[in-house]
Amino acid sequence: MLDVIIVGAGPAGMSAALMLGRSRRSVLICDNAQPRNAVSHAMHGFLTRDGMAPTEFRRLGREQLQQYPNIEFRVTTVLDAKREQNLFTVTLSDESVHTARTLLLATGMKDVLPPIEGFQRYYGAGVFSCPYCDGWEVRDQPLAVLGNGPAGEALALQLLQWSRDIVVCTNGPSQIDAREQAFLNHHEIKIYEDPITRLEGTEQQFERIVFANGSVLPRKALFLQTKHLRRLELLDMLNCPMPERYQEPIAPGIYLAGDVYQTRWVSGAVADGAEIGVMINKELQKEDLTRSYRSLKEV
């Protein structure tokens, strides 16, 4: 029997595994090799790792975990999860079955892009969701924001830190009120209300927006606030609803870490995973000591 099964080997999952492995806990990490940042060419804002490719980061993480014989890493998908008393049993796509005292979900989230031609193709190659991650690389360049209402205005004003040449594309009638419009006008940010037909560019880089009226707007990059789907299918399998107020553990023996909750940056996910790893070890220590105490009383 394992101490912990971790589902997801992104920054949070691997960081938790490292802390647990160093605490001499037996750990199984299951990962389906579908990271959220698969389209990213480089990570940014992470001290000592600024500019590193996410693939290299994951490779180094796995390499460092290999020195701990009590950590096992499997590229696999969790097909089923059950809870029986105080233990969790998971069935993997390789048909193996494993049992653990604790389950940590670091399954991340999925970005949902607009159903417009070109967004999927250029996401990570000129189409971005985070100015702190990608704003520096397109500083002082002509930028576009896809957004409407207060959220669109806020993102456009935020981008002024990186460029003064910004437009807002509302992809239909503007929902930006007079006050917000005044702020945008003050900073010479123009609003385009025409629906977007598609994004165009080279094989590897976004270059322009094509509108339904036939007009074309060259831009170096486009920023948008993507919708997110948290990957919490395993909670459904366990009949474990998310609590109205977030807590750790979210249910006895079940923890969350990283983007599956709220972390957006790699550095934050690493820190979150480390904290959860320590928290899990402390809870397991309490269980071990309680069991030892009960055994002593029975003697």
From TrEMBL:
Pfam families: Pyr_redox_2. GO terms for molecular function: oxidoreductase activity. This is Oxidoreductase. Coiled coil: none annotated. SUPFAM superfamilies: FAD/NAD(P)-binding domain (SSF51905). Keywords: Flavoprotein, Oxidoreductase. PANTHER family: THIOREDOXIN REDUCTASE 1-RELATED-RELATED (PTHR48105). The keyword Cytoplasm does not apply. Residues 3-265 form the FAD/NAD(P)-binding domain. InterPro entries: FAD/NAD-bd_sf, FAD/NAD-binding_dom, Ferredoxin-NADP_redctase_2.
